[in-house]
Amino acid sequence: MTESILRHDWSLDEIEALFELPFNDLLFQAQSVHRANFDPNQVQMSSLLSIKTGACAEDCGYCSQSAKNATGLEAEKLMPLEDVVAAAEVAKAKGASRFCMGAAWRNPTDKNLERVVDMVEAVHDLGMETCLTLGMLTQAQANRLRDAGLDYYNHNLDTSPEFYGNVITTRTFDDRLHTLAHIRDAGINVCSGGILGMGESRRDRASMLRELCNLPRHPESVPINMLVKIEGTPLYNAEELDPFEFVRTIAVARLLMPRSYVRLSAGRTEMGDEMQALCFLAGANSIFYGERLLTTDNPEADRDIRLLRRLGMSTEQLQETEVKAAKVSCS
Ligand code: SAM
Ligand code: DTB
Ligand code: SF4
After folding, report:
1. Which residues line ligand 3 (CB under 6 A)?
2. What's the family (predicted)?
3. What CATH number corresponds to the domain at position 66?
4. Cβ pair 217, 177 in contact under 8 A
């Protein structure tokens, strides 16, 4: 069953049945679908930068940046353009193909959006793909970003509609869906996924994936985050998720959205190399790359390069960078 028929009519029971397959059967199916659609040894790499940090009006129970969570995080205003460009240049030199800029906003004001537009244009001029995550957008704002040449917008559903109210109360699941529709209608690539390990059930994980794959078009990019437990957040003491359940969720995402990039996102610093290799086997083909996520650590870039080499995996951008580096050292 490797034929990639893109379905948008999955039932919850069908998705739960995939979760319940024996682990090896599930991974075999997911890897078969993966290699029918992608080079199984290539990984896409995005780097992240927090361009506006902390003091956020939302009450997301997992987040270090909510003003409601006493996490001791120091708030920072919107970064100057030059600093953003400098960070993007470093990320590009290290081999990232996409630069994702995140802001701790419920939604951007039109004035702030214009400053971000300048950042998108400048990063695009470096020859990188651009991604933003700024919170909710109106249709007019999404259109403005499209006109500026934005490639991707990240807006996660985070969890199932049923579990959503346990994690966030200051906005609704439907608010998230509306912003996703605005991004899609503007013609910007959609990046949307969620977080595992927040105390949700398997049915919630299946339900979140169902929401994603039953959208009118599958998101081009699907980040699956393992909760990073941050002291001072309500979810700091959330029960540990079985790592195999995380791998299963990646595999089911791959089966439901065969042509989407599935990103093994936050939480990799806590994972061993073997766990990450299992996630790649399950169909993950994208990572966040560079020492920092938004406010927490990510594995060191050279550790990731070593891991990819040990697995015989690569990234197109990295190959180009290595060719350039080889040319410099020969000249
Ligand atoms: N404020 C915007 C928003 O909420 O859409 C953009 C930034 S927000 C930090 C982006 C995403 O990061 C969240 O939707 C969530 O899925 C993820 N995230 C935030 N904190 C996390 C944590 N502690 N562990 C895992 N993922 C997290
Ligand atoms: C996504 O799904 N994960 C990234 C990105 N999209 C914006 C953010 C992860 C944040 C992890 C916690 C932190 O560093 O604050
Ligand atoms: Fe704000 Fe985004 Fe963090 Fe929620 S996840 S508190 S919206 S920065």
Report:
1. 56, 58, 60, 63, 65-66, 104, 106, 135
2. Belongs to the radical SAM superfamily. Biotin synthase family.
3. 3.20.20.70
4. no
